[in-house]
Specification:
Blueprint (H helix, E strand, L loop, with lengths): L1 E2 L3 H12 L4 E7 L9 E6 L3 H9 L16 E4 L1 H10 L3 H6 L7
Antiparallel strand pairs: 1-2, 2-3, 3-4
Length: about 100
């Protein structure tokens, strides 16, 4: 179940993904399969080869790409989510969703 985002944020993410950009969307998400994780970040791009190449730098495997709904993306959780958001410069998302590590 996704919550904590506005429709405009989702639309902007979908457009960026469709345009072939690597785009990020973080939202609250609860799923019993992932205990301790309260958020997920979707890192997507319609150009799957570009997404695969981007994911290699973080050790993300091509078979982890969710190909559903014309918006190919990796689902990022936990420490991996935090590290990637930090490296990609999305400090606002880390703070907004309480994911920032203590300095």
């Amino acid at each position: 179940m996704a919550f904590g985002i506005q429709r405009a944020e989702l639309k902007a993410w979908k457009k960026a993904v469709s345009d072939g950009d690597i785009a990020f969307l973080t939202h609250y998400w609860l799923d019993d399969r992932f205990p301790g994780c309260k958020t997920v970040t979707k890192a997507g791009c319609a150009n799957v080869e570009k997404l695969i190449e981007w994911g290699k730098q973080y050790g993300l495997k091509p078979e982890w790409i969710d190909m559903r709904n014309d918006y190919p993306h990796f689902d990022l959780f936990g420490n991996e989510e935090r590290t990637i958001l930090e490296n990609e410069g999305f400090i606002d998302q880390l703070e907004r969703f309480g994911l920032r590590t203590k300095a």
